[in-house]
């Protein structure tokens, strides 16, 4: 008999026990990070497809031509939806939104260098653009030029135009932005970029599949224009593991044509090994996410996605209206999509405490710290699993009850002495001792254990200068991983 260390059933029991500490990925109670269609049998179908290609290596498409067929069909589906009717649109299947955004920036850098001679490139983006673009700028040596947004949290085309220079390699707009669920004025921004010969990327990672299919729901208002049919838009990213409801590890980066796409590919033959061509940042890569995405796209189909998008849209509007009727709460901006940022109008009602209270009752609402004119809030990602009257009513009742409990608890406070001390710290010279003191003062245990209530920790991090918070956040994660 195998020991517990090697026994298959014991290993699965151990894995199941570990998963018991996670947030649930089905049922609609985890309103961030996961996307649940609510359709029965989809997980099993995707798992079977992934298992069918488990040994396939996507590194060499000539050795495994199945990956070419699968990718062409998946990308073709995305191009048909978001290519604006342009037959020359092409794309690449990637591991997720971050990789798609990284590749869009890398492609723009290479394009600017080869076609315009730009040697010190800049990327112009709204302050609401996803952090992945700042990551890309750091990795690939671009200077980020951030542009403010208006009171609706949308960027102004005139501000983008004013930020463009001869060094600008790429302009980024969101459809929608993650934090507030609003779509930037893509046609106006893209026109400003095109007027200067600059590429324009639309980050539709979270909303593109949903908004694209929503256009086919004839009884609902059409979303703002945002895809590759908009003049001046040169690339677009859309995640399938979000509102296409495929397993994690699936995104598509679309380009206006194959010539632009080639600027982001890597080829190397100057070594004694095999010729290397990488279409993504990865070399060896599993075909499992691709096969799983392929089978889910076929299973749900255009009509299915249109209906799911319609249900999500109606549920989002119901939730926004219902939250607006809860005393002390308001939805920020005017969301175009299925993302809601809920802030407090009552000084005694702390959104971070509200998030703690809902989590104590089995709901996860994502806390978002204050930044600029955007106050602290909780973020709701509405998926099809939430889109029924009973669940919407249940969620609204829980938010209202949690708001009352949060008032009774009172806002999380930050020790003024700690805030004063933090203001005088230099993030670049912090040693291990100072880091330990700062994290302990924020309420984090030395072994990395997260407290049951995160409001005090979030309040402390929010009060820190951004550079100091960015210095300490990796240390928090390092503690989790035992370092």
From TrEMBL:
Keywords: Aminotransferase, Lyase, Pyridoxal phosphate, Transferase. SUPFAM superfamilies: PLP-dependent transferases. It comes from the Bacteria. One of its GO terms (molecular function) is transaminase activity. InterPro entries: GrpII_AminoAcid_Decarb, PyrdxlP-dep_de-COase, PyrdxlP-dep_Trfase, PyrdxlP-dep_Trfase_major, PyrdxlP-dep_Trfase_small. The keyword Ribonucleoprotein does not apply. Its cofactor is pyridoxal 5'-phosphate. The keyword Repeat does not apply. Belongs to the group II decarboxylase family. Sphingosine-1-phosphate lyase subfamily. This is Aspartate aminotransferase family protein. It comes from Actinacidiphila acididurans.
């Amino acid at each position: 008999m195998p020991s517990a260390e090697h026994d298959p059933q014991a290993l699965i029991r151990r894995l199941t026990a570990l998963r018991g500490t996670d947030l649930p990925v089905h049922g609609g109670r985890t309103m961030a990070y996961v996307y649940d269609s609510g359709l029965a049998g989809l997980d099993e179908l995707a798992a079977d497809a992934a298992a069918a290609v488990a040994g396939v290596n996507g590194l060499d498409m000539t050795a495994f031509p199945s990956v070419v067929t699968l990718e062409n069909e998946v990308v073709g589906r995305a191009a048909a939806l978001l290519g604006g009717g342009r037959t020359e649109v092409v794309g690449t299947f990637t591991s997720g939104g971050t990789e798609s955004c990284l590749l869009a920036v890398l492609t723009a850098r290479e394009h600017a260098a080869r076609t315009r001679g730009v040697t010190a490139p800049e990327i112009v983006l709204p302050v609401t653009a996803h952090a992945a673009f700042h990551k890309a700028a750091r990795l690939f040596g671009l200077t980020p030029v951030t542009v403010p947004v208006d009171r609706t949290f949308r960027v102004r085309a005139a501000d983008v135009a004013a930020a463009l220079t001869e060094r600008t390699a790429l302009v980024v707009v969101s459809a929608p932005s993650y934090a507030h669920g609003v779509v930037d004025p893509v046609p106006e921004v893209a026109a400003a970029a095109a007027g200067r010969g600059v590429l324009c990327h639309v980050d539709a990672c979270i909303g593109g599949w949903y908004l694209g299919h929503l256009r086919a729901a004839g009884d609902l208002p059409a979303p703002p224009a945002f895809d590759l049919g908009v003049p001046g838009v040169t690339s677009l990213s859309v995640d399938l593991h979000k509102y296409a409801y495929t397993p994690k590890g699936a995104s598509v980066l679309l380009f206006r044509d194959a010539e632009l796409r080639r600027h982001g590919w890597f080829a190397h033959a100057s070594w004694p090994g095999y010729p290397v061509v990488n279409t993504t940042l990865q070399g060896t890569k599993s075909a499992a996410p691709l096969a799983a995405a392929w089978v889910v796209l076929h299973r749900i189909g255009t009509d299915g996605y249109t209906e799911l998008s319609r249900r999500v849209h109606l549920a989002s509007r119901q939730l926004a209206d219902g939250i607006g009727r809860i005393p002390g709460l308001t939805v920020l901006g005017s969301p175009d999509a299925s993302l809601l940022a809920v802030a407090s109008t009552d000084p005694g009602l702390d959104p971070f405490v509200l998030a703690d209270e809902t989590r104590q009752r089995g709901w996860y609402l994502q806390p978002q710290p204050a930044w600029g004119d955007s106050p602290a809030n909780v973020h709701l990602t509405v998926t099809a699993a939430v889109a029924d009257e009973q669940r919407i009513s249940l969620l609204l009742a829980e938010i209202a009850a949690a708001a009352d409990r949060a008032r009774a608890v009172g806002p999380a406070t930050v020790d003024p002495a700690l805030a004063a001390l933090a203001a005088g710290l230099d993030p670049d010279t912090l040693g291990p001792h100072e880091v330990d003191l700062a994290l302990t003062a924020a309420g984090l245990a030395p072994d990395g254990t997260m407290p049951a209530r995160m409001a005090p920790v979030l309040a402390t991090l929010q009060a820190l200068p951004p550079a100091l918070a960015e210095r300490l956040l990796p240390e928090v994660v390092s503690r989790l991983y035992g370092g």
